[in-house]
Design a protein that fits this description.
There is one protein chain. The chain has a two-stranded antiparallel ribbon with strand order 1-2. A two-stranded antiparallel sheet has the order 3-4. It has two domains: about 80 residues, Multidrug-efflux Transporter Regulator, Chain: A, Domain 2, CATH 1.10.1660.10; about 40 residues. By secondary structure, the protein is mainly alpha-helical. The radius of gyration is 20 Å and the shape is elongated. The protein is built from five helices and four strands, in the order ααββααββα. The longest helix has about 35 residues.
Length: about 120
């Protein structure tokens, strides 16, 4: 299938699909005329990429882990025990938890400013 068909099948724009290719996440076959040729495996790969992005993983980590995920018999994404996968996931979870903590601290500081501003106003 061509890139437009993959875009329709996945709900992902052509531009984003090209970005995934630039990042090494998708590897379509190039036809002699230069067109990209995708198959059903690419549909699943895009679904997996979107799920991993939604989990907060950067594309550099997704590129390393994408081959470790597949669909089970119910069509749900599951991870295989690939070397380094757990350490990558744990590291990314720590990074996200740290970011949440920083945001909560910022939110508390803003709440304090709002409270003191409202009391004066």
């Amino acid at each position: 299938m061509r890139i437009g068909e993959l875009a329709r099948a996945t709900g992902v724009s052509r531009r984003l699909l090209r970005y995934y290719e630039e990042q090494g996440l998708l590897r379509p076959v190039r036809l002699p005329n230069g067109y990209r040729d995708y198959d059903e495996g690419h549909v699943a790969a895009v679904r997996h990429i979107r799920a991993l992005l939604a989990a907060g993983l950067p594309t550099t980590v997704i590129a390393r882990l994408l081959s470790c995920v597949h669909d089970d018999e119910r069509g749900r994404m599951v991870a295989a025990a690939c070397p380094g996968m757990l350490s990558h996931l744990r590291r990314e979870r720590r990074r996200i938890a740290d970011a949440i903590e920083r945001l909560q601290t910022s939110q508390q500081a803003l709440d304090t400013l709002l409270t003191t501003t409202l009391q004066r106003g």
